[in-house]
Structures
1.
Amino acid sequence: MIKARVIVTLKNGVLDPQGKAIEGALRGLSFSGIGSVRQGKVFDLELDGSDKAKAETDLKEMCERLLANTVIENYSISIT
Amino acid sequence: MKSAVIQLPGLNRDRDMIAALTKISGKAPIKVWQTDTELPEVDLIVLPGGFSYGDYLRCGAIAARMPVMRAVAERAAKGVLVIGVCNGFQILLEAGLLPGALMRNASLKFVCREVKLQVANANTAFTRAYAPGQIIRCPVAHHDGNFFADPETLARIEGDGQVVFRYAEGTNPNGSINDIAGIVNQAGNVLGLMPHPENLIEAAHGGIDGRALFESVLGRAA
């Protein structure tokens, strides 16, 4: 079995009001020195088989077709 | 006019849309379930509002991948008129039938109120019964209506007259770029908008400003 993690984040320049609200809340907790906060999503997947190259290809297609909206989001894939 | 309303789990404005279409066209729309792969022969396909699949992943993301959406895309490519309202707009964007994306409202709050809309393009199949630049009233109810497009896409849709409705008179409820409330595709036969014209079609609603949208379509399909 292959385990993979997909991280989806908003592209640079795309407004992230949730990140801004989290940033404000962290400052409210008296954490200092916070430049900025951007939030995103993490997907942990378990895939059958052991072919990592195939898994990589499949994961990329999953990201393009569903997990990320590439109009506004970037994704990164890591296989462990 | 023959119409179809797409139904998906979590949509809740389908009944309002069915009532509006029935009252205005005199004919009840055909209801089509998400797993149907064939659509009836109709002049208009409507994706109503709601919270399909609980807004999981992203609003409209899962609905956009249901079998019926392939059939909707095929019909759209043939020039059949398609309207997506609210969650329906989000679904059309996620399905790639319209450009851009809808993000969380800039205020982070769900907004449920009346806004003013300017008819930015009255030369479409959906707006010809309005006057150019006309200001109309329309209700909105959404959490993710903040329209976004990258600069090139934005320039293209603005240049091609694809922006059909804008929030007017400082009523932008969600931070949408250029006050965009509704857009059409390049061919002009697919409309997506966040406001709910189906909820302002008779005196009992307190106004009828939404009616002309459906009458525009009716005029073409009659």
2.
Amino acid sequence: MENQTIHQETDPGSAVSSSYQRHPLATRLLHWTSAIAIFTLLWTGFWIFNIHPRLYWGDVGNFDTPALAELTADTSTSIPEIFIKVGDYSLEVTGLIGQVRRMPFIRVAAYPEGFKFGGNRALHFTAAWAFVFGWLLFVYHLISSGRLRDNWLPKTGEMSPRNIGRDILNHLKLRRAHGDAAKHYNILQKLAYLIVMFAVLPLMLLTGLTMSNSVTTAWPFLFDLFGGRQSARTLHFIFAFLVLLFILIHVLQLFVAGFINHLRGMITGVFHIKVEKKS
Amino acid sequence: MNKLLNRRQILRGILLSTAIGGTVLASRRYIGPVRDIYDLTDSLNYNLHNFLLSNQPLVREFDKADVSVNFPTSGTVLPKDDDYQRFLGNDFADWSLSIDGLVENSLSLSLADLKNMKAQTQTTLHTCDEGWSAIGEWTGVPLASLLTLAGLKPGAKYIVFHCMDTFGSNQQRYYESIDLFSANHPQTILAYGLNGESLPVKNGAPLRLRVETQIGYKHAKYVGRVEVVDSLQNIGSGRGGWWEDYDHAPWYAGL
């Protein structure tokens, strides 16, 4: 059904334009509800990070213990200088990011007037529930509709170094897929979707749960799995950064592959393809 | 062929919405009516966690060698209230904890009374909603044994902790509450000792709550009165705690 051409016309020029139903309704609904949930999680998560921008490893982490990475200030000068410190490296970011409030509390950004930290946390958990339901439905949909097998999993030969190498080159040259190739996900796209869906997002949830006192009471092995409560927190922010990176590339790729066409494909499902006329 | 949904998809949709609807309905076994999306989330967390903890497992204990010597603080570090200052000046010799509300016998217990009761010591990880954590060795009296001593009346559902520190921009005394399930957890104690010494003032002297299955702001410091109630409606603005009432913080804070 997906590859069925619902409309075809001969262009007066040299190409045949055809359109087809690219994404079924379930994919589109789940894509956008997940997008809203994940955006909310990233947004509220940023404000949670902001209140204590220090990352640790192990179980314990506070102002008396050394941080793996931190936003910190040198107050020995008249105007405090702000640094990002990672191990022995430090990068001065005075004026770029970092805001000096109550010493030694340094925050990445100022909280808006009337900001409620507790409400922000509550919203993070609300979005987390929406995300979990959405993720479960999405995985169920991918499997039951056969899209996981047909569209996501690499086909025979796709994982060959030659094919992957060619695809990397296509990406670097920002080359747009045409004709039949535009109908299928390319190998890097497939791998990105698979890694985000089945590795990064589940790890986000698990590291998040490892920060919960009651969940670790029921499942103390989570501490061992991630190396402690603070390690889980650090990993949670690293994975969140990977999700953000994925979204940025995902959106940038729209411009390469055709912004309106792909956006419409994910809203109404209709996707246009130009097929080169055989002479 | 271009129908948006076929019969199988509709059937699936019905099944899934039943599952989600059922979860939401099950969540109503909660502190009160679900008024907004915050309450909905709070109740989902509460129900899931109560299910996970149904057999009351113990929280992990840590090595005593790993305690944080200078235990970090949040909130009040020195109550300026006159009565507190008076108690502090006398090293809490004339301070007493009152336990009242829906109990058979209201109690008034001095610090010496509490220290004469069967003590419990536990080395646990404290986590703050801001993100930091620290290990402390806490000594105190299990809350469950105090509640047994007072004897709960029928209808008792929540334990409210009234604190001696005036807190926050609205200058109200701090208060917090937990349900009987958390109150009866074997590691829920009212602590008077930290790392083998008297509880420091900055950490809540003379007495603070340790409810190890939940996070920092539930662990009320400077506790002066424990009240047993059947509803949280008349406590503060009705959400069960200072942060809950004025900062929209979740009442159930197992996460």
